[in-house]
Design a protein that fits this description.
Farnesyl Diphosphate Synthase, two-stranded antiparallel ribbon, 16 helices, about 75% helix, globular
């Protein structure tokens, strides 16, 4: 179960967030001014993108990239690492906006999702066509725009850093397809669920940002293996925590309705374990996972099955073990002491966070 008291955000995260947010604001406000001068209607998508990127997010990906860069001897004030951090946040915005369309999510960070916001605008103005299609179409364009801006920020990076950047985008799409497919089929096994964890979120959130940071400092060949030994288990722990929050998290903290992942039928390792261990009566309860009309009472029933089968306990134990494995990998890492401390603090936060 998630902790009751909010988990403190480490300085290793907040120290990176401020310059990245300033860069994002500068870029997007400049783009707003440029395009509004051409057509005032272009204010809406750019303003929504700016608010989405600047006003929300934990900045984890920029943080992991930053501390790998600093750990490899990079200057923390180098504009290249700040631009790269901003690029990661824009890429994350692209992924989230598109993910919300695919999942049919109504809220994100406690606010209406981008597609729902534009759907509401269409409906309130009584425009031509279908409100849902308009909202989803504009959201896809907003997400695409975020990706283009991200690529622009990465265009001057060294070739090995840009190669990793492109690979992580492919991995993200591969993982997302497997996630969508698993939810549609409704069949989930532990091996497939862990593969989705690895490619949809784990590598993209931690391991690849670390690799990009090392590459920016010209030390990828030296640090790649060590950073993977840290990033792979921690990336899995990150997504496993996300899975718990998607089922048991408090909406006031997560910004999404309780049980949204259950309504979407997310093929998580926790669900796979519960299905494997469920009694016939428990399996009947789990068979409702993936139903968009899943009630709050049914969600509580599913939560009970996750607890009764020890699926929740096993995932919590896995998070603890994976976090320890990640931290142990730092013991022989050829990185600066400042980066060592920061990456340890980030590992603790990733494993225990409550939003």
């Amino acid at each position: 179960m998630t902790p009751n008291a909010p988990v403190a955000i480490p300085a290793a995260l907040t120290a990176v967030a401020a310059p990245v947010e300033a860069r994002l604001r500068s870029l997007l406000e400049s783009e707003q001014a440029r395009w509004i001068a051409i057509d005032a209607d272009l204010e809406a998508p750019l303003e929504v993108l700016t608010r989405f990127v600047v006003d929300g997010g934990k900045r984890l990906r920029p943080a992991f990239c930053h501390w790998a860069f600093v750990g490899a001897g990079g200057d923390p004030d180098d504009s290249a690492i700040i631009d790269t951090g901003a690029a990661f946040e824009l890429l994350h915005a692209f992924a989230l906006v598109h993910d919300d369309v695919m999942d049919g999510s109504s809220t994100r960070r406690g606010e209406p999702t981008v597609h729902m916001s534009f759907e509401s605008t269409h409906r309130s103005h009584d425009w031509n066509g279908e409100s849902r299609r308009f909202g989803e179409g504009v959201a896809i364009l907003v997400g695409d725009l975020a990706e283009v801006y991200a690529d622009r920020l990465m265009s001057a990076t060294p070739p090995d850093a840009f190669a990793i950047w492109n690979e992580l985008k492919i991995e993200l799409n591969i993982g997302q397809f497997l996630d969508v497919l698993g939810a549609a089929r409704g069949d989930v096994d532990l091996e497939t669920a862990r593969r989705i964890v690895r490619y949809k979120s784990g590598k993209y959130t931690i391991e690849r940002p670390l690799h990009v940071g090392a590459a920016l400092a010209g030390q990828l060949a030296v640090l790649e293996t060590t950073l993977s030994r840290y990033g792979e288990p921690l990336g899995e722990a990150f997504q496993l925590r996300d899975d718990i929050l998607g089922t048991f998290g408090e909406s006031e903290r997560t910004g999404k309705p309780v049980g949204d992942d259950l309504r979407e039928g997310k093929p998580t390792p926790m669900l796979a374990i519960a299905i494997d261990r469920a009694t016939p009566s428990q399996r009947q309860i789990l068979d409702r996972v993936g139903s968009i009309d899943l009630s709050l009472e049914e969600i509580r029933d599913v939560q009970s099955v996750f607890t009764e089968t020890d699926a929740l306990f096993e995932i919590e134990a896995s998070i603890s073990l994976l976090t320890k494995q990640a931290m142990a990998a730092l013991d022989d890492a050829a990185i600066t002491s400042e980066a060592f401390d920061a990456l340890r603090d980030l590992a603790v936060y990733v494993g225990a966070r409550d939003f």
